[in-house]
Design goal:
The protein is mostly helical and about 350 residues long. It has 14 helices and no strands. The chain has two domains: about 60 residues, no CATH class; about 250 residues, no CATH class. The model has no long low-confidence stretch (mean pLDDT about 80).
Length: about 350
């Protein structure tokens, strides 16, 4: 492959679902890859990966090793396929992976919308402030330059105030943009923990980060259990998917308790890994052997909860930024109109 690029969530989900359906239909792995190659453009990332995988599988390599050699699949997907092959549950694993990465795609879109909306609002505010400074305020200054009398001095005072206010607001907005851009760059450059430490100071953001981490853990834990992993091994592997230190610390405590012989449901409840109402759902599920069913339900609830939190963040930022814009423009326009009102009164 000429250029190593990772598949996105949607690509991994589509691959896993297609493989799962063909394996379910009794088609062998090498034949399934061959059929997928026919439906994908050869120049695409997935198409190139399928070509290489097909060759490797025909030479005797296992599916997970072939996926790893392409360099485009995430480690989590590769590990799960390996577990599915080892336990004879590859079909179930593929469908789980399709669902998991589809949920990850939806989650990524939600987070992106939570970032893009305020970014677009801030950009609009900056554009309006620049228009005020470049076009509106100079036009009023030209009007007042042509006037004479006792009102002229006070007019310039109002104009000066309007200029100063617009400049201050513009600086504030530019600083917010710089902070936002720096945050995104730090997040993508390996300094995610620094950004998270800042966001944790904001209650809504802290709740969202915690919920997203628990969603990823629960979805992964359910998948590992479904693939035949033991509880303690599943917990260990699932913790690697969290990537959020506060939740990782809770999971490490749970792992230590499980090494002492306690079950996952018990330690999850006692360590308050989930909200109490969720934690209580696990206890009877573990005793009755319905753990996987309850974990799927928890995954769905955490997904819905994260959606609600993203919507709350957007709904909180929208009136704040809109109100900031309206109040700023109202104050500036009032500063410009007061001299004119005074002139009209003096003439009348």
């Amino acid at each position: 492959m000429s250029k190593q690029t990772k598949l996105d969530y949607l690509g991994v989900s589509a691959f896993a679902e297609s493989m799962g359906m063909m394996i379910q239909a009794g088609i062998s792995i090498d034949e399934a890859i061959h059929l997928l190659k026919q439906g994908d453009h050869k120049e695409g990332i997935l198409g190139q990966a399928l070509n290489k995988m097909g060759t490797l599988v025909e030479e005797g390599e296992t599916l997970d090793k072939a996926m790893q050699d392409t360099g485009v699949f995430p480690d989590y997907a590769i590990n799960m396929v390996h577990a599915g092959l080892s336990t004879g549950k590859l079909e179930d694993v593929m469908f789980h992976l399709a669902s998991y990465y589809n949920s990850e795609k939806q989650m990524s879109d939600k987070i992106r919308s939570a970032i893009l909306y305020p970014a677009s609002m801030i950009t609009m505010i900056i554009a309006i402030l620049i228009i005020m400074l470049v076009m509106v305020l100079p036009a009023f200054r030209d009007v007042y330059d042509k006037l004479t009398g006792s009102l002229t001095a006070s007019s310039y005072n109002y104009i000066g105030f309007a200029y100063a206010l617009c400049r201050v607001l513009l600086v504030i907005m530019i600083v917010l943009v710089i902070v936002l851009v720096c945050g995104v760059l730090m997040w993508n450059s390996g300094k995610r923990e620094t950004v998270e430490n800042f966001l944790r100071k904001i209650p809504l953001c802290n709740n969202l980060l915690d919920t997203l981490a628990m969603f990823r853990f629960t979805a992964a834990y359910d998948m590992y259990l479904s693939s035949g992993e033991m509880q303690d091994d599943a917990l260990k592997h699932s913790t690697e998917m969290v990537n959020y230190r506060p939740v990782e610390e809770k999971l490490e405590k749970c792992a230590a308790r499980m090494e002492e012989g306690h079950g996952f449901a018990t330690v999850a409840y006692e360590e308050e890994l989930y909200e109490p109402i969720y934690g209580r759902m696990l206890l009877p599920a573990e005793r009755s052997g319905n753990m996987e069913k309850v974990l799927k339900r928890l995954t769905s609830l955490l997904n819905d909860n994260s959606t609600d939190l993203v919507n709350r963040i957007v709904n909180t930022l929208e009136p704040l930024l809109s109100g900031f814009l309206m109040v700023s423009i109202a104050v500036v326009l009032l500063s410009l109109m007061l001299p004119l009102i005074g002139m009209m009164n003096s003439i009348g």
